[in-house]
TrEMBL record:
Cited InterPro entries: Rieske_2Fe-2S, Rieske_2Fe-2S_sf, Rieske_Fe-S_prot, Rieske_Fe-S_prot_C
Name under which the protein is recorded: Menaquinone-cytochrome C reductase iron-sulfur subunit
Chain segments annotated as transmembrane: 27-55
Keywords for the protein's UniProt record, in alphabetical order: 2Fe-2S, Disulfide bond, Iron, Iron-sulfur, Membrane, Metal-binding, Transmembrane, Transmembrane helix
Cofactor: [2Fe-2S] cluster
CDD domains given in the database record: Rieske (cd03467)
Domain of life of the native organism: Bacteria
Region spans: Disordered: 1-21
GO terms assigned for molecular function: 2 iron, 2 sulfur cluster binding; metal ion binding
Every Rieske domain range: 64-172
Signal peptide residues on this chain, from the entry's feature table: none
CC terms in the record's Gene Ontology section: membrane
Length: 187
């Protein structure tokens, strides 16, 4: 009785395994390569998104037209809205209400004061009696008509803003400042 011999391995069978392995490896590399390309493609806009605001310079002047000089009564504070276009790295909005400022006419000049309280950022109003200046409703900081602190926890005076008169219109360099610190630091 003869023992049956296992079927002889053919050359093609022995070569099929390495070819399959190579194919799988090639496919794997292609998938990884594709994933890397996809990740890089997705990462570029994300990096631009993150980096763009950093590229924007802070503290640049923003001259905004407000009211005509003759609309201001001598020594009487008037609150005016600051309306201007707002542009960030991606969009531009027209006629946006950016905040408000207090204007006090002093003869031919105008004193402009930020309406943001330097303490914690509440909106400063006029004092109950206007000649007394300004008062913050949040923690009772008070300021005289020139924005100098007279009482309360505000760490500094109200923040003054540069002004100029263009063709009879009061133009203000609208800025924001760090709150809660004694120094006037432009943001
Ligand atoms: S926010 Fe104005 S006194 Fe505190």
């Amino acid at each position: 009785m003869t023992t049956p011999k296992p079927p002889a391995e053919t050359g093609s069978t022995r070569e099929a395994a390495p070819e399959g392995t190579a194919t799988r490896r090639t496919i794997g590399l292609a998938v990884i390569g594709g994933a890397c390309v996809f990740a890089a493609t997705a990462a570029v806009p994300a990096l631009v998104f993150v980096a763009a605001p950093l590229a924007k310079k802070g503290g640049e002047s923003r001259w905004v037209r407000t009211v005509r000089l003759e609309q201001l009564a001598e020594g009487e504070p008037k609150r005016v809205a600051v309306i201007d276009d707002r542009t960030d790295a991606w969009t531009r909005e027209r006629g946006v209400d950016l905040g408000s400022v207090w204007l006090v006419r002093q003869g031919a000049n105008v004193l402009a004061l930020s309406a943001v309280c330097p303490h914690l950022g509440c909106s400063v109003n006029t004092a109950p009696v206007i000649k007394d200046g300004f008062a913050c409703p949040c923690h009772t900081s008070a300021f005289d008509l020139e924005g100098r602190r007279t009482s309360g926890p505000s760490p500094r005076n109200m923040d003054t803003l540069a002004t100029r008169i263009d063709d009879g219109v009061v133009v203000v360099d609208f800025q924001r400042f760090r709150i809660g610190v004694p120094e006037k630091v432009r943001l």
